[in-house]
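Page header: ASSEMBLY MODEL / two components / 313 residues total.
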Amino acid sequence: MYSPNPLTPAVFHILLAIADGERHGYGIMQEVSVRTGGKVVLGPGTLYGTINRMLEAGLIEESGERSDPELNDERRRYYRITGKGWRAAVAEAERLQGLLRLARAKHLLQRPRPV
Amino acid sequence: MSFSEKMYRFLLRAYPRDYRIRYAEPMEQLFRDRLHEVHALADLVALWGRTLADWAVSVPARYLERVTPHTRSGSLADPARRCIFFARSEASSFSRREITVEHLLLGVLREEPSLVPGMKLEAVVRTIEANEPVGRRVPPMEDLRLSEETIRVVAAAREIARAAGRRQVAPVDLATGILREADTLAARILREHISDRA
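Prediction written out in full:
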């Protein structure tokens, strides 16, 4: 059976991190960490493993290599979202919105949990 | 180079060679950036705890991807799944309770816009919109099922892929499967476009 949910949390977080502009690996990690209040911290292995798969799937692309003036002189690889990545992020956001609407309809967000 | 950096460089040797060639440098760089955030011994211990946990999970995952490249550890679905993911989004926006072959065609075109040369996604959307019983409105809350025709298309696409010796269903297989559901609007759109181009 085909699942209508092809995006893992790591993929969706990375797409959100670069939705408003290109970032390098450390920039993506910082953005995800700040946006989730430190609850999600992508380590180097997870981050670049996910980036590798997203490049293969055409969800993101490399947009060049240069240094970040806010950090140091080291050259960094930048990544940006593609049209397909944008559509996947929108579709996933809509899917989550539908689930949230369902949770609201079931009063999950107001009702105290039964003991 | 600090002891931590040397240790991390050593750990990177555990990754597959081709992956290391491509990503060892940015991974080292990222670790170094995080090391600069460390101000106390407790921070360093926490960083190493997270780094070792990340390493222990990601090294086997990279090897697993090489053995089973089609599953990619389940992290990203194959192109056919993404087509259905986009189709589901289309069906939802039309407020439909099921994913029809027309929604699947839109999903295929969203996943691989260049699949059918000259076919404009916007034009297909307009044609399908004009034939939908209701316009776009608030999506239904329940999860959506594949229609009977769409189930047949997916089954046909699997056969087509198998006959071609491919383990993975590609968007082109789904498009061919759509053509087999000759009575649907999606098949008509594809047929007319192909005959116009011929």
